Amino acid sequence: MNWVLLILAGIFEIGWAIGLKYTEGFTRFWPSVGTALAMVVSMGLLSFAMKSLPAGTAYAVWVGVGAVGTAILGIMLLGEAANAGRLLSLGLIVAGIVGLKLTTPA
Question: What pTM does this model have?
């Protein structure tokens, strides 16, 4: 269950990372509210997941999920580059996340 919470925390991290782009420096009210809520939910879920998962593993997976998801949405929504080097690098992050999952007890 803690792995599910951790992945959800990463998904909410994606939400607030992309949300920051839409807040326009926190000058737009509703995007700012949504981004702040996503931040709180993400941190809360991460803290629950860390009750039984090692801190280093949990943090690395949380950041990895957030980074990969944010980069993918940046490509899809914001017109960011999708070159081979960038996609390969994202694949390496995913491989690291899978490796941490497979080698972490709990």
Answer: 0.92
User: Do 27 and 12 form a contact (C-beta atoms < 8 A)?
Assistant: no
Q: Could you tell me where the DSSP H helices lie in the chain?
A: 2-23, 29-49, 55-78, 84-103
Residue 27 has which token pair?
């000058």
Residue in 47, 49, 51 with CA at minimum distance from that of residue 39 = 47
Distance, CA of 64 to CA of 31 (rounded, Å): 24
Q: Is the dihedral of CA 84, 90, 91, 96 positive or negative?
A: positive
* 105 vs 100: CA distance, rounded Å: 10
Tell me the per-residue pLDDT of 27-52, one tens digit each, with 9 for 90 and over.
999 999 999 999 999 999 999 999 99
Quick one: three-class SS letters along 79-92?
CCCCCHHHHHHHHH
Q: What is the pLDDT of residues 49-78, one digit of tens each?
A: 999 999 999 999 999 999 999 999 999 999
